[in-house]
Write a structure and sequence with these properties.
By secondary structure, the protein is an alpha/beta fold. It has one domain: Vaccinia Virus protein VP39 (Rossmann fold, 3-Layer(aba) Sandwich). It is built from ten helices and seven strands. Strand 6 and strand 7 form a beta hairpin. The longest helix is centred in the N-terminal third of the chain and has 23 residues. It is globular and about 65 Å long. It starts with a helix and ends with a strand. The mean pLDDT is 93.
Length: 262
Amino acid sequence: MNIFVWYGFGGVLLALTLVAGFFFVFTRGTLLVRELLGRHTSSSHVYPMYSDMWLIRLVDHQPLIAAILLFQYRRMVSRIGQVLASSLEKNQTVMFTSCAFGNVVPRLVEASATAQAGRILVTDLIDNELTHVRSKLGPFADRVEYLQNDATNSNLPDSSVSANILFFLLHELPHPLKARALDEAARVLQTGGSLYIAEFHRPRLWALRVLSYLYFKVFEPYGLALWDQEDPQRYLNQKGRWSFSRSTYLFSNYQVLVATKL
C-alpha cells in the first residue's frame, strides 16, 4: 500500500483519538475526578463543556453538533418545530428546559414568536449557558425571558406553560434526577400542553446497538437507562394520563417524543 495512504490513515486515527480524548476529559472524565474528590453540589453532574464559557464557545458549532448526533439533528429539530407550530396558540407560554447546543433554540424561538406565543422562557441551571444562548438569538434575543432554573427543582408555578422542550437533557442527568426532571416538566405543564423530548433511543440494528452501548459506557454513563427502565414514555405513562406521538431516527437510535398532558 502507498506510504501516503498509511500516513493518511494514521493521521485520521490520531485526530479521532485526540477528539475522543478531549471529549472524555471534559465529560465523564471530569465526573470521575469530582467523584474521587467528593465534590457533590447541585451542579456537580454538569460537564465543564456545558458550564465553562471557553469550552461552550469552542464546541458549540452547528457542523460539529450535527456530526455528534450522526446528522440527525436537523430532522429532530424540524419535527419539533412542525408540531409546535401547528399546535401552539396565540399568547401561550413556551419553555425551554435547558439550553442545548446547536441551532435548536434559535429555530424554535423563531417558530414560537411567529406563532405569537405570549411568553418564551429559556431556562438553565448554568448562567453561562443563558449568556451564550442569548448571543445566538439575534433579533429574537429581546423577545425571550432568561431564567436560571433547576430542571429537577423548578421555581416556576404549576400549570404555567403550554409547551416545554427538553432537547437531549435527560441522558446527562444521574438516574434519580431523570425522574425528578420529568416530574417537574409535567408539573409546570398545563392540561392540554405538550412536552417535546428529543433523546437517545434503543437502536433497532444490533451493530448500532453495540456501538451505542460502548459510546454510553465511555462518554455518557447515564444515558443507557433511556433504552428501557427510564424511557420517558414509560415513566410518564405510569405517572398520569398522557397521549404520545413518537418518531425515531437512524434505525431508532434517536427519538422525538411528543407527550400531551390529558
